[in-house]
Amino acid sequence: xxxxxxxxxxxxxxxxxxxxxxxxxxxxxxxxxxxxxxxxxxxxxxxxxxxxxxxxxxxxxxxxxxxxxxxxxxxxxxxxxxxxxxxxxxxxxxxxxxxxxxxxxxxxxxxxxxxxxxxxxxxxxxxxxxxxxxxxxxxxxxxxxxxxxxxxxxxxxxxxxxxxxxxxxxxxxxxxxxxxxxxxxxxxxxxxxxxxxxxxxxxxxxxxxxxxxxxxxxxxxxxxxxxxxxxxxxxxxxxxxxxxxxxxxxxxxxxxxxxxxxxxxxxxxxxxxxxxxxxxxxxxxxxxxxxxxxxxxxxxxxxxxxxxxxxxxxxxxxxxxxxxxxxxxxxxxxxxxxxxxxxxxxxxxxxxxxxxxxxxxxxxxxxxxxxxxxxxxxxxxxxxxxxxxxxxxxxxxxxxxxxxxxxxxxxxxxxxxxxxxxxxxxxxxxxxxxxxxxxxxxxxxxxxxxxxxxxxxxxxxxxxxxxxxxxxxxxxxxxxxxxxxxxxxxxxxxxxxxxxxxxxxxxxxxxxxxxxxxxxxxxxxxxxxxxxxxxxxxxxxxxxxxxxxxxxxxxxxxxxxxxxx
Amino acid sequence: xxxxxxxxxxxxxxxxxxxxxxxxxxxxxxxxxxxxxxxxxxxxxxxxxxxxxxxxxxxxxxxxxxxxxxxxxxxxxxxxxxxxxxxxxxxxxxxxxxxxxxxxxxxxxxxxxxxxxxxxxxxxxxxxxxxxxxxxxxxxxxxxxxxxxxxxxxxxxxxxxxxxxxxxxxxxxxxxxxxxxxxxxxxxxxxxxxxxxxxxxxxxxxxxxxxxxxxxxxxxxxxxxxxxxxxxxxxxxxxxxxxxxxxxxxxxxxxxxxxxxxxxx
Lengths: 565, 265
Known about the structure:
The complex is a heterodimer.
Chain A: H1 3-11, H2 16-46, E1 54-56, E2 72-83, E3 92-99, H3 103-106, E4 110-114, E5 128-130, E6 135-139, E7 145-153, E8 159-160, H4 163-213, H5 215-220, H6 222-254, E9 256-260, E10 266-270, E11 274-278, H7 285-301, E12 304-305, E13 310-311, H8 314-345, H9 350-362, H10 367-390, H11 405-430, H12 433-441, H13 446-474, H14 478-483, H15 510-519, H16 524-560
Antiparallel strand pairs in A: 1-2, 1-5, 2-3, 3-4, 6-7, 6-11, 7-8, 7-9, 9-10, 12-13
Helix pairs in contact in A: 2-16, 4-6, 8-11, 8-13, 9-11, 10-11, 11-13, 12-13, 13-16, 15-16
Chain B: H1 5-8, E1 16-28, E2 31-42, E3 46-50, H2 57-64, E4 74-82, E5 85-86, H3 94-99, E6 101-104, H4 115-124, H5 131-144, H6 148-151, H7 164-176, E7 182-186, H8 194-207, E8 212-216, H9 220-226, E9 229-234, E10 237-243, H10 244-249, H11 254-260
Parallel strand pairs in B: 3-8, 3-9, 6-7, 7-8
Antiparallel strand pairs in B: 1-2, 1-4, 4-5, 9-10
InterPro entries (chain A): MetI-like (IPR000515), MetI-like_sf (IPR035906), Phosphate_PstA (IPR005672)
Pfam family, one (chain A): BPD_transp_1
Family (chain A): Belongs to the binding-protein-dependent transport system permease family. CysTW subfamily.
């Protein structure tokens, strides 16, 4: 062999190029995943971090920012290059997006300001000085407020203006105010809610009696009299509780805080509107971290406000969780039983092959098709019949004849059943033949062998199928929009009210919530961080569900592990 | 009745327990794998089936407890009886037949359960769940399979944590748990090392006091060591069947002689 050829082959051995090629494929995949997670993490988590608020001084004659050219205070939300429109001044310049809050005063919370509109320091960089003593208020309405606190006026007439005392009083009043909110929410939601549901059942009873006895006879019947008395007693209770709640509301309304905005004007904000306050520029790093964690927790545990652009997303997390769980409960037995028949009992022939191909194809049907089917079959046909049979007294108000968490779960179960069937079939066929034969040779019937030996041994594989089904089901949005997901659900599908699980209720879903925030939101700038934070949570929820299933699977695998697997 | 002259000399001196008779033929689909079999197996002795691969010895063994029923498209002519009862009797359920016959497979195949649960499996599926009875069966079976002393302290550990030889003996223990009349062994030592093989062979010697044993083996030394009678099969036919010593020392058929002396197969 000539020397040159030898050295050539030693540098590039045969097939090496393809190895690089495959490695490149993997690297691209990994980069994509890291990039995806990185972008979502950065954008999602930045929403919770307390940003420094800067005083922004605009150059003479500028009309940028809120109020057309007044200096203001805000956090930098974005800095980017801007391509100028004018051909004469072609080139790149920077543009800032500021979060200035105070939507009630400025009309919008975010403002774009060109870099050349901002007063610069000696080096030519835009001059930003942290606004000392600025207060950021999280409000129920109009988003955050930014400003310098001037005085607190309490309902009993005291006013506090001295800065240190004001700071202490501020946090104390917010705490008291939140306690009052909790108390009257409890009264209104729980106690008054209970009275309302009792009144509703009395009303239905009265209606039934009237229909039974006839309008005239009913008025004099003792049953109706008794019901009327009960109703009056409940009404009295209601009045009492409503008065108590009103008093607490009133008190919250009367406490107020006077704030001077960076643009100069003063605003009085009632404490009923304030949920939280912090001084972003005076926080230490541990303080910021604590605040960050607290904000994450609040985001996960609170209900949304302001057309979903403020507050938390707890109902959506909970709705997604309950729906996915119900879906798994429905899809597991159904898919596993179908797969057992297909694999173990059906005579393998043309028909079974056709069924198998159909099942595989079902996995590829667009999900919206399942949504349409769910609406047409589950909601209209099944739900309509259930309403006629069991809830006819409530008609024309639909109970099950409208979208709800049950129909949504069943629709998704139907959508994911092919995944479970395919995985289960594979798991069943992977159980060694010897194990089945041993069971049969011991005198087991076919069903006993399947139930006691084959199914436990294939449990890990079946769970893998369930994991895939859950991952697909939890992230699905399109079919849900037809069968029960809503922008804002008044109550959770699971609560303390009898019968605890309300399968007929509509629910919120993280996937739909993202869609809603991104496309249906009145303020897209304000919604943007929420979109990423919600996406992050959806990913986390899917990961948590998958991890728990994987943990169970690994546990089973260890239990049934052997050299035959 | 017999078509094969070599088998006649081995018949008259015992009372047959398992009888393969009426020219037993067996097909997988359209392929015939057993031809005109007639064979009487004595009670409480070890009968070995030997022959080259594909000679039908395993098929015949698996016909005795109707394990072949699992395969689609099989059929047969002729009959097999155990204690004068036909295994194809329509009134006899295949499940109750298999309860009377224990089986040990080529590759040890314990269930992915504890040692204890492996042994009591056949009782549990019959609905016998009384703890004292199960405990007794476990001890008796494990002692019977010469495994008791090795595993008595870890009965509730996974069976898959045992060594290969132990697993095969556990399978033997499982096969005798239900007190069968017959034990079928399909090359029970082919996956074991020589030491484990020795233990299993010893065990077979012990077991034949209580059970009728039919063993398929590739290993002629093993057939010579453990069996009382040996049947030699070739290409789906029973070539010769006699007392083991005769088969190995003075076979009456040329093919048998060629095979046992290692000249083919």
